[in-house]
Amino acid sequence: MRWGGEGGGNIEDRRGMGAAGVGGLGAGGVILALVGYFVFGIDPSTTTRVLESGGAQQQEGVRGAPADEAGRFVDVVSGNVDDVWQAQFRQSGQTYERPAAIVLYDRATGTGCGMGQSAMGPFYCPADRKVYLDLSFWQELETKFGAGGEAARAYVIAHEIGHHVQTLTGASDRARRLGARGAESGAVRLELQADCYAGVWAAHAASVSGGQVTLDPRDIEDGLRAAAAVGDDTLQRKSQGRVMPDAFTHGSSEQRMRWFRRGAQTGDPNACDTFRASDL
């Protein structure tokens, strides 16, 4: 994967700030726990326990382009993802609104959905329309999930911004009505669609932002490995030795790979309608 140049400048850098809690789970935290917005296999009950450890006061970090390479990577890739979606929305006669910010933080931070913590993995909060990312997760992505490399990291960013697209289109509201757990649940359909949207980004990344981000077939394979590593069946098998489809919140490894591949091969968001798909 090659990347460079100026990013989108939509970074809110809270690294080194710590977090301010006020207690209480909050309605936003309940929504996140039930719907399963977190990408990396966090059980909703675990999310609830983390959020219950403290509510959150809203914080404000430094806005703009970070100076360090890790921060610049997130800035350039997220800006590229936004450019892809701006073009896709324009083609359908709509206006794309980028996330309110991509928040970089350490360990814990206040969000519109309660207290965000690194244990949750990267996540999108629909209440404040921000993506939250502790960059220490990149190491966990490689060591715990076996998905290293910049393309795998870019997949994570594109997936989370995919959740923002779902907020704009109303898919997130639709998912809440269909349930938070189970192989056919709204949560699974939401996550698989976000995987497909990450594939759509990969298909168009080089055609926007002045060619600042380019992917080759090996990068697509890295994205596929990242998607497979965080399938519900793979995570359940590692943690408890058996697979329980009734507890799925994100979809199987095969499903996540298949939907990411569909987005990458078609480049068409309309091919990502997991809510109408008879075969997930």
Helix/strand class: alpha/beta
Shape: globular
Care to count the β-strands?
9
pLDDT under 50 segments (min length 5)? 21-55
Helix share bin: 40-55%
What average pLDDT do the residues reach? 86
Number of continuous helical runs: 10
Largest sheet: 5 strands, mixed
> Strand order within the widest sheet?
3-2-4-8-7
Taken together, the total number of domains comes to 1
How far the N terminus sits from the C terminus, by CA atoms, comes to 29 Å
- The SSE order reads EEHHEHEEEEEHHHHEHHH
Q: What does it look like?
A:
By secondary structure, the chain is α/β, with parallel strands linked by helices. The protein has one domain (2-267). Helix content is 47%, strand content 10%. The strands form three sheets. It has a five-stranded mixed beta sheet, with helices on one face. Strands 1-9 form a two-stranded antiparallel sheet. Strands 5-6 form a two-stranded antiparallel ribbon. Helix 1 (26-35) packs antiparallel against helix 2 (44-52) and helix 7 runs parallel beside helix 10. The protein is globular. It starts with a strand and ends in a 14-residue tail after the last helix. The model is unreliable at 21-55 (pLDDT under 50).
Helix-strand layout with pairing:
Layout: E1 2-3, E2 11-13, H1 26-35, H2 44-52, E3 62-63, H3 69-91, E4 101-104, E5 108-111, E6 114-117, E7 123-125, E8 130-133, H4 137-143, H5 150-169, H6 171-177, H7 186-204, E9 213-214, H8 217-229, H9 232-240, H10 253-266
Parallel strand pairs: 2-4, 4-8
Antiparallel strand pairs: 1-9, 2-3, 5-6, 7-8
Helix pairs in contact: 1-2, 3-5, 5-7, 5-8, 6-7, 7-10, 8-10
